[in-house]
Automatic annotation (TrEMBL):
Organism this protein belongs to: Acinetobacter qingfengensis
Keywords: DNA-binding, DNA-directed RNA polymerase, Nucleotidyltransferase, Sigma factor, Transcription, Transcription regulation, Transferase
Protein name per its UniProtKB record: RNA polymerase sigma-54 factor
GO cellular component: DNA-directed RNA polymerase complex
Keyword Hydrolase found: no
Main function: Sigma factors are initiation factors that promote the attachment of RNA polymerase to specific initiation sites and are then released.
InterPro entries for this protein: RNA_pol_sigma_54, RNA_pol_sigma_54_core-bd, RNA_pol_sigma_54_DNA-bd, RpoN_core-bd_sf
Entries under Pfam families matching the protein: Sigma54_AID (PF00309), Sigma54_CBD (PF04963), Sigma54_DBD (PF04552)
Similarity section: Belongs to the sigma-54 factor family.
RNA polymerase sigma factor 54 DNA-binding domain ranges (all copies): 322-479
Signal peptide coordinates: none
Molecular function as annotated in GO: DNA binding; DNA-binding transcription activator activity; nucleotidyltransferase activity; sigma factor activity
């Protein structure tokens, strides 16, 4: 083997720390960006946030400020540790009022309300019942086995096993029977909300029906419907009338009564926490023109600390001076990366608004097909950059709050050779179904033909896929005869 020395030329892409930081900031959401800025403020002494009432001063004033800061710093070094005071502790401390005195602050009742859970609501009622200790343990096991809808999420035999285990741990030597669990279960099913801890929908509706006493004949008709629950779920009206011997009018009233009951009694106790999103971009229409601008509430106000920057000496190579230089460079790069992030975000958002102008004018039916490459070519960025900019970024429009990625959609060909957005097709399908006759709902094949009459070439299976994505049931499930 012979050793040799040679030259080789190759092109490689290396990401500088500044470029890596810019890419990282580009894909952060507004909340994550706020956290990242706070981390930088905590770690870099030369980076500081500017108050809202801060105004830029001239360079001469900055120089005077730096000089006065140096003088204050030198004076602070001469201040002794122990300073004389002209007040005593008793002159500062405020004594608490006595019971006979008027309180300093008016005592008010705490009216803050919290969402009560289903288990807490049931246990509060169970503790008011005259149950034995054994029955209470069985009730606790039943409540613990309820799901978010309020239904029993296990078999009664499992409740029996869990209650027997609790009794053994409590040192109570008694053999439970299945009938005891059933008795306690019936107690709980009639607590508020009525129908909780049922095992299926039919049992839940039946227990709620027992509390109805206004029209006994209507109640009997509703019981007859529940006896044929399979036909009721399938909406087979003709067979229901034949099996129950009820007229169409009687059947209609009985079904209306059953629909008035709550199919999920425990759902009302679920905490409904809303997730709020802060818009990054705001769209407004002024003088028949759409204007896009960044949300001023999320724009960070940062600058390099002038005092620490004034301490840097150009020719000094000491460790302290070198540290200040490095921190100032990082602060400037961070501010520049933040600025580039917002410029890129505004550029991409403006491009999207220009493409989807019809959406903001007439609604989802005006959505145009748009992909990442279209925006990337127009704003002269890479597709991956556009993807980072539109991820977890929101725009506030007169039609609501949307993620920027919402405006990208695939396309379907039209009869004229053009393209139609899949979002617009979904909006058309939803509009057609909303206007259909409930007794003769439109099938997927019929909807496909109606869209083809509008010049949109779409297959039946595509209509079915779009309909399912809108959570719209099939035509047979939408059919209502009464």
């Amino acid at each position: 083997m012979k050793l040799s020395v040679g030259l080789k030329v190759a092109n490689t892409l290396s990401l500088t720390p500044q470029l890596q930081q810019a890419i990282k900031l580009l894909q952060l959401s507004s909340l994550e960006l706020e956290q990242e800025i706070q981390n930088q403020l905590d770690s870099n002494p030369l980076l500081e946030a500017i108050d809202d009432d801060f105004k830029e001063t001239s360079s001469a004033n900055d120089h005077d400020t730096d000089q006065s800061s140096h003088e204050e710093y030198n004076q602070n070094e001469l201040i002794p540790d122990d300073l004389p005071v002209d007040t005593d502790w008793d002159e500062i401390y405020t004594h608490q009022p006595t019971a006979l005195a008027t309180p300093e602050y008016e005592e008010r009742e705490d009216n803050r309300s919290g969402t009560e859970s289903l288990s807490d609501h049931l246990l509060w009622q169970i503790n008011l019942l005259h149950l034995s200790k054994i029955e209470q343990m069985i009730a606790y096991c039943i409540v613990d086995a309820l799901d978010e809808r309020g239904y029993l999420d296990c078999e009664i035999e499992e409740i029996l096993t869990a209650a027997q285990h609790l009794l053994t741990q409590a040192g109570i030597e008694e053999e439970l029977e299945l009938a005891e669990v059933v008795v306690v279960l019936k107690y709980i099913q009639r607590l508020d909300p009525v129908g909780v801890s049922c095992r299926n929908l039919v049992e839940c509706l039946s227990i709620q029906l027992e509390t109805y006493h206004q029209n006994l004949q209507l109640k009997a008709n509703a019981h007859a419907l529940l006896a044929h629950a399979d036909l009721l779920m399938a909406n087979d009206i003709n067979r229901l009338m034949k099996q129950t011997k009820l007229s169409l009018e009687q059947l209609k009233h009985a079904m209306t009564l059953l629909k008035s009951f709550d199919p999920a009694p425990g759902a009302q106790f679920q905490s409904k926490e809303q997730e709020y999103q802060t818009p990054d971009v705001i769209l407004q229409k002024k003088n028949d023109r759409w204007h896009v601008f960044l949300n001023p509430d999320i724009l960070p106000k940062l600058r390099v600390n002038p005092y620490y920057a004034g301490l840097i000496k150009r020719a000094d190579q000491s460790d302290d001076n070198q540290y200040l230089k490095n921190q100032m460079l990082e602060a400037k790069n961070f501010i520049k990366s933040i600025d580039e992030r917002h410029k890129t975000l505004l550029k991409v958002a403006t491009c999207i608004v220009e493409h989807q102008r019809d959406f903001f004018e007439i609604g989802p039916e005006g959505m145009k097909p748009l992909v990442l490459r279209d925006v990337a070519d127009e704003v002269e960025l890479h597709e991956s950059t556009v993807s980072r900019v539109t991820t977890n970024k929101y725009i506030l429009t007169p039609r609501g709050l949307f993620e920027l990625k919402y405006f990208f959609s695939s396309h379907v060909g039209t009869a004229t050779g053009g393209e139609c957005s899949s979002t617009a097709i979904r909006a058309m399908i939803k509009k057609l179904i909303a206007a259909e006759n409930s007794k003769k709902p439109l099938s997927d094949n019929t909807i496909a033909k109606m869209l083809q009459e509008e010049g949109i070439d779409v297959a039946r299976r595509t209509v079915a896929k779009y309909r399912e994505s809108l959570n719209i049931p099939s035509s047979s499930d939408r059919k209502i005869l009464i």
